[in-house]
Amino acid sequence: MGNKKQDNNHKYLLKLLGSKGKDAENPEKTNEFKRIFKRLDANGDGKVTLQEYINQSRWKDEAKAKAIFNATDRNGNGTITVEEYIENRTITDKAKEIFNKMDKNSDGILTEEEFVENSIIEDKILAKQIFEKMDVDGKGELSLPRYLKIWGDWARED
């Protein structure tokens, strides 16, 4: 892609796709996320356990709830803090918005063609290269959960 530093700077690649970073949320959204966190925190101890998340979240599919919980619990200590929750929502809400704009047939799968043709990146060769970096298993497509996992990992890199 050119400059070696840019090749390995995943945050830069996400910015090209439209990311504003993990700290880009506006105060209204942050307050909304805090209210949701408070509802999830059933016992009011300032932490959300996996069981609280499963019981209180809108996800009826327990496997999906566990996957989202684990993606949010960045330090793996078995609880989510309000900071972890806000960071995860800030990253994933924007990532989902961008995914949905590119997923023209709304099937929850981004093919390389959809990604290249529908991303905001005008340089189609660059868009193809970014897709290939995200397509870590080489299947030629990205499911929403897979895409969110990669996006989240990239967005949190130091």
Structural commentary:
The protein has 158 residues and is mostly helical. It has one domain: EF-hand (Recoverin, domain 1). The protein is 60% helix and 6% strand. The chain is built from nine helices and four strands. It has a two-stranded antiparallel ribbon with strand order 1-2. The radius of gyration is 17 Å and the shape is elongated. The protein starts with a helix and ends with a helix.
Query: N-to-C terminal Cα separation, in Å?
Result: 21 Å
- Poorly predicted ranges (pLDDT <50, ≥5 residues)? 1-7
CATH architectural name: Orthogonal Bundle
CATH-defined superfamily: EF-hand
The CATH topology is what? Recoverin, domain 1
Helix content: 55-70%
Structural class: mainly alpha
CATH C-level class: Mainly Alpha
Fraction in beta strands: 5-15%
Characterize the overall form.
elongated
Over all CA atoms, what is the radius of gyration?
A: 17 Å
